[in-house]
Amino acid sequence: MWPLYAAGFTTAFGAHGIAASLGAHAEGAVTSLLVLGGLLALYDGAEVLLKPVFGTLADRIGARPVLLGGLIAFAAASAVYAVADSPGWLWAARLGQGAAASAFSPAASALVARLNPAAKHGRAFGSYGFYKSIGYTLGPLLGGVVVWAGGLRLLFLVLAVLGAAVAVWAALAVPVVPPLPRARQTVLDLARRLADPAFLVPTSALAAATAALSVGVGFLPVSGRVAGLGTVATGAAVSLLAACAAVVQPRAGRALDDGRLTTRSGITAGLLLTAAGLGCAMLPGLTGILTGAALIGAGTGLITPLGFAALASSTPQERLGQTMGAAELGRELGDAGGPLLVATVATLTTLAHGYAVLGIILALGPALTAVRRRPSRR
Questions:
Q1: Residues sharing a CB contact under 8 Å with residue 180, sequence separation 6 or more, in sequence order
Q2: How does residue 185 score in pLDDT terms, banded at 50, 70 and 90?
Q3: Angstrom distances, CA of residue 125 to CA of 3, 40, 151, 156, 289
Q4: Do the Cβ atoms of 242 and 132 come closer than 8 Å?
Q5: Is the four-CA dihedral 205, 260, 275, 277 of positive or negative sign?
Q6: What is the distance between the alpha carbons of residues 77 and 94, in angstroms, rounded to a whole number?
Q7: If residue 19 lies in a helix (H) or strand (E), which one and from where to where?
Q8: Residue 318 in contact with residue 180, Cβ under 8 Å?
Q9: DSSP letter for each residue of 231-267
Q10: Contact 164/72 with Cβ under 8 angstroms?
Q11: What are the tens digits of pLDDT across the range 31-51?
C-alpha cells in the first residue's frame, strides 16, 4: 500500500507545489494574469478530460500498468522543463504532468480498493487521503523552499526524481492485479450506472467537499487580509484547514470499518460541518477564520474516505477504474466550480455572501435526504 500512498502524495505535491510557485518565480513564462490562469488551468483541464478515460483503461488492461505508465510519464514531463528552460516547454510540461496524473491517480484509487477487503476500505482510503492531504499541505511550503534554493527548474527536477522513484517502488512492491472479466457495456448502461444514487450521492458529496476545500484555501486568506491580518495569520488558517483534513481522514475510515459510523451519517455530518465552517468564515476577525478553517477541514476530511469507500463497495470489481475516474472527474469539477461560484457571488455582493451561498448548497444535501426519507402521513 505504501507505493500507492506515495503516488497520492506525488500528484498532490506536484499540483500545489508548482501552482504556488508559478506566479512569483516564472517571470519569463508568466507575462500576465491570463497566462498564469492558463498554466494553472492546464493541469486541472487535462485531469477533467482524461481521468475517466484512464480509469476505463485500468479496468481493461489492469490498474498496475496504468499506474506505472502514469508515474513514468509524470517523471518524463517534469524532466522536460528541467532540461529545456523555455516558456513553450513549461506549457508542455504542465500539460504532460496533468495528463500523467490523470492516469496514475484513478489507477491508485482502484488498486487501494482491489488490494483491500471491503471491511478495510475505510482505513485504506482514509490513509490514502491522509497522504494526499500531506502533499497538498507541504506542496506550497517545500516547493517554495526548493524554488528559493534553485529556481523553478529545480522544482521540476525534484518532481521528476520523485515520480521516477515512486514508479520504481511501485514496480517492485505493488502486486500484479489482473483485470477481471467484464460484461459488454453500452453507453446507456454506463449512463444508467452513473445516474444511480449509489454512485451519484457519494460523488456529489466528494465534489461538494472539494469545492469547499478549494474555497477555503483560496478565499480564507482574502478574508484575513480584509480583516487586517498578516500573512502569518492567514497562512496559519490554510495550514489548519489542511491539517484538520489530514488528521480526520484516517480516523473516519477506521470508524467506518469498526461500525461506529455509517456512510450516510458520516457524509451527512461532514456536509453539515463544512457548511458550518463556511458560516463561521463569514464572521470578521481571526476567530471566525480559524474556526471556519478547522470546521471545513474536519468536514471535508470526514466526507472523503467515506465517499470513496461507498463507491468501492457499490461498484463491481471489474469496473472500479471507471468508477474512480468518474468520481475524480466530479471532484475536479467541484475544485473548479466552488471557487468560481463564490467569486461570482462575491463580485456581485460580498465575499461573506459567497460563503453563505456555498454553505447553503452543502447543507441542502442532508436536508433533501431527510425529506425523501420521511414517511408519508397519508
A1: 59, 317, 318
A2: low
A3: 14, 27, 35, 28, 29
A4: no
A5: negative
A6: 7
A7: helix 2-25
A8: yes
A9: HHHHHHHHHHHHHHHHHHHHHHHHHHHTTSS-HHHHH
A10: yes
A11: 555 566 666 667 777 877 888
Residue type, 37: G
Contact 247, 325 (CB under 8 A): no
When pLDDT is averaged across residues 342-354 and rounded to a whole number, the result is: 88
CB distance 256 to 304 below 8 Å: no
Q: How is residue 174 written as a grid cell?
A: 505493488
Residue with cell 528559493: 148
Is residue 137 within 8 Å of 239, Cβ to Cβ? yes
In a 13 Å sphere around the CA of 74, the CA atoms on its Cβ side amount to 34
The CA distance from 148 to 302, in Å, is: 35
- Confidence check: pLDDT of 240 > 50: yes
Using DSSP, state whether 82 is helix, strand or coil.
Answer: helix
| 262: amino acid identity, one letter | T
Angstrom distance (rounded) from CA 14 to CA 158: 10
Grid coordinates given for 378:
397519508
Q: How far apart are CA 8 and CA 11, in angstroms?
A: 6
Give the integer Cα–Cα distance in Å for 103 and 333. 17
> Shortest CA distance to 262 belongs to which of 213, 211, 313, 296?
313
User: Please, are residues 77 and 26 in contact by the beta-carbon 8 Å criterion?
Assistant: no
